Amino acid sequence: MRLLALIATVVFALDQASKWLVVYWLDLANRGEIDVLSPLLNFRMAWNRGVNFGLLSGEADLTRWMLIAIAVVISACVVWWVYRDQAGRWAMISAGMLVGGALGNVTDRLIWGAVADFLNMSCCGIENPFSFNVADVAIFAGAIGLVIFSDKPKTPAAPKTAGKAPRKPRKSA
Prior knowledge:
Elements: H1 2-25, H2 28-31, E1 33-37, E2 41-48, H3 61-84, H4 89-112, E3 115-120, H5 134-149
Antiparallel strand pairs: 1-2, 2-3
Helix pairs in contact: 1-4, 3-4, 4-5
């Protein structure tokens, strides 16, 4: 569980630091967009009030608090799940990524009322209209990792006797 907590803390810190750096220090909140390695990587400011790709976005405060509650409940369930199943190292890392990312986005909703998305990637003449953040990447990677690495260990086979044949019962007279 310490590994899960460590990874969650690192992901959370990276997410919040990247948002502070880009949104405030580079002033993306006012500039709106910065071409970094155009068209492959750009910073495009987007305040996401919903879930992925702006789904369920609404201005209602109820939506904001509902999404916060859902993220906290899912994070708690993931922690309980990997603890209960005594998950292996990679499942713990995956869970830590998911939880750290989810809590990063929860923090945004608590502070700003929306998630700060700023990473935008396009390629090959296709203009991507969507932005995302470090937390989104961690949530996605963590979820995929949990699917791959959370398989419960198989029940061990019955112990074998080392080269001995089973003894036959003796007949009584």
